[in-house]
Design brief:
There is one protein chain. The protein is an alpha/beta fold and 207 residues long. The protein has one domain (5-195): Flavodoxin domain (Rossmann fold, 3-Layer(aba) Sandwich). The protein has helices at residues 19-36, 72-82, 100-107, 129-141, 160-164, 170-179, 181-195, and strands at residues 5-10, 40-45, 86-94, 97-98, 117-124, 145-146, 152-154. Strands 1, 2, 3, 4, 5, 6 and 7 form a 7-stranded mixed sheet that branches. Bound molecules: flavin mononucleotide. Flavin mononucleotide (FMN) binds at residues 12, 14, 17-19, 92-96, 124-126, 128, 163-164.
Length: 207
């Protein structure tokens, strides 16, 4: 049997962004627990899909049984998400809430990942806990199984502007290594447990 694939998805989409560095910090921690259990990790970067604000004439819940996507950008994003068995979403927080680009990308999907497990890692000046809570609500409602541990990575105060400029400051990285490694590893363990259970949609609010 082919090994199960976990997509580590960088969900920020600014031209200058710190998201890929945050994903790289996360990957270093989750790599061993997941690969040693036989899972593979695929790096996925949302920005490469260049998604416009949702513009399909159909609802994602209708795809693929009752309708097909009209646009290539939707088909590409849908196909990418469909091919993985589990996900780690690395999400920024903007203005006390989920970033528009993150929510827009989620809105393109439904059956591609319904029932599958996902871990959420947020980051921001306060760790992105509001965005994490909102994304958890959206994904649970869509029937994904959300890992209980949701690490929230807060930038060290002097590094906030460094992050906006696209660089993860050294003080922040050191603090995360010391204080957040165990939490990110716990999220990977949660995800691993969920990956071993059947893909039964949890709390699905939609048919
Ligand atoms: C439009 C905007 C709004 C922001 N609002 C918040 C916020 O409400 N909470 C927070 O923790 N960080 C906030 N930040 C700071 C971001 O966490 C920081 O810029 C980070 O680098 C964003 O991730 P990115 O570089 O991957 O886009 C905001 C940044 C931007 C650009």
């Amino acid at each position: 049997m082919a090994s199960k694939s976990v997509a580590l998805i960088t969900m920020s989409t600014r031209g200058t962004r710190v998201g890929p560095s945050v994903s790289s910090f996360v990957e270093k921690i989750i790599e061993k627990p997941l690969t040693s259990a036989g899972f593979t990790i695929a790096n996925v970067d949302l920005v490469k899909f260049n998604l416009p604000v949702y513009n399909e004439p159909v609802a994602p819940a209708m795809v693929p049984d009752k309708a097909q996507f009209k646009y290539e950008h939707s088909r590409a994003w849908s196909a990418e998400i469909k091919k993985h068995d589990g996900y780690v979403l690395v999400i920024p927080e903007y203005n006390y809430s989920v970033a528009g680009g993150t929510k827009n990308a989620i809105d393109y999907l439904m059956n591609e990942w319904k029932g599958k497990p996902v871990a959420i890692v947020s980051y921001g000046t306060r760790g992105g806990t509001s965005a994490s809570e909102q994304v958890k609500g959206a994904l649970s409602g869509m029937g994904l199984r959300v890992a209980e541990t949701r690490p929230a990575l807060a930038f060290n105060q002097p590094d906030i502007f460094t992050a906006i400029g696209g660089k993860l400051g050294d003080a922040t990285l050191k603090a995360w290594e010391a204080e957040q490694t165990a939490n990110v590893a716990k999220a990977a363990e949660d995800l691993k447990d969920l990956l071993m259970q059947p893909n039964t949609p949890a709390n699905a609010l939609r048919p």
